[in-house]
Amino acid sequence: MAEAAPEGAQGILLRGDPGGETWAHVAFSLSPVPLPGGHYPEFSEAPRRADRVAAERAWLAALWTDRTTARWDLRFIGDPVSGRVEAVVIAQLYGTDPAAAVRAVRDVLPTLARFPAHVTGTRIEDTAEIERLLAPFVPGWGAIAEIRKRITCRTLTRSWGAERIATAVSRFDAHDPSWNRIWTQLAAEQRRTVVSVCLEPCAAPPGLAEGLTMRAQVFGTLAVPGPPDPLYGNPVPGDPFAQQAHGLYEAASRRYNGRLHRARVSVAVEGEAPVSDILPGLLGHTVAPTSSGAVVVRPQSWEEHQVACGNLLGVNRDWQGEACWQEVPVFLRTPSAGQLWLSDPGTVAALADLVDADEAAAVFRLPHEEPGEPELFALKRRAPDIPRHGAPAVGTAGGTDGWTDFGPGV
Question: Which one, 146, 217, 333, 378, has the greatest CB density within 10 A?
Fold first, then answer.
């Protein structure tokens, strides 16, 4: 439920529960800073792209907080009427009461508003507009999907003690990725479409790095030929999956230390028809082009659909029991007596959610212009000629004069 903001908290949307706990939301509308004449004469595009990525990484690093309930949601909303993409960033922070939630927002606002030089951010003061951006529409069944790290489970050709099953988690391995193809496809969609990227700052779980290092060592042992078979006298060949898992766990043991984020990437379309494979597939290929380490997951039940919608509309990142486990068998999804160590579900679930600085930069790409490419982003949000659902278009207030809504949500 939305609450009236305490005095002096204009432009902050508060949602609370009967117990008094409160979530505060603040939002900025984003647009790319135009390139001078379309080019920087003294630079090629590669250095300029590297500068953009470095600036975005520095901005995210400055935003990191030890508040365990802070989340940043970057969302791109495609509008088929205008053929443009609306870009916004929404910060959600928690407080034990409305005043505490407002203080949390005030603490983070100066850093949040210090956007990289290639982005212009305009504070959205109208809380009704923030409500619309949080819920531009409610996806129907099949109209929402998430892009997640690929989880692979295999039976090993070599055993480790009593264990013959192992599980590994891929990573988002894009290097300085451009999202221009994603934004172009989003602008061309025939239905209103949202791409939402949520990051939640967190510290590495205690003991995670050590556990990953131990697993990397085990998989390294299984990946190389073993002692000769006593019956036939030939060396036991290394396990192919162990070779893959060794590289993933060894890299994870180095990367998942210190300041990290948990991530969730959602794609949703308006209406009841299912979301197509094109945009989610393009997102997966963009954030994990080298290893095919991303997979599109779709809710497998009505309960999971509600979880996926809650993730998008409520800036959450809850797990979907069937979809997110992908090909992992049921008996490996929950801790139990005699749990197989090489497929520990707690470790697998943690790796599936965590991203380091490189991965965060791959999924949290702020809008920018590309030389020679058409203008994609809405510098002004134009209301459609015929308002949707028969309702009038609503303008925003508080320092955003001349900006109007794309149209009401539901």
Answer: 146
Report the interhelical angle of 98-112 vs 45-63 (nearest 10°).
150
54-84: pLDDT as tens digits? 999 999 999 999 876 899 999 999 999 989 9
Strand positions, DSSP E, 131-270: 144-149, 151-160, 163-169, 193-203, 259-269
Q: Retrieve residue 325's tokens.
A: 């486990």
Q: How far apart are CA 2 and CA 13, in angstroms?
A: 7
250 strand-pairing partners: none
Q: Contact, 23 vs 93, CB < 8 A?
A: yes
Q: Work out the burial of residue 252: count CB atoms within 10 Å of its CB; fewer than 13 is exposed, 13-18 middle, 19 or more buried.
A: buried
79-131: pLDDT as tens digits: 999 899 999 999 999 988 888 899 999 999 999 999 999 999 999 999 999 99
Please state, in angstroms and rounded to a whole number, the distance separating the CA atoms of residues 82 and 375.
Answer: 12
342-355: b (≥16 Cβ within 10 Å) or e? bbbbebbbbbbbbb
Question: Nearest to residue 368, comparing CAs of 230, 229, 241, 183?
Answer: 183
The helix (H) or strand (E) run that includes residue 27 is: strand 22-32
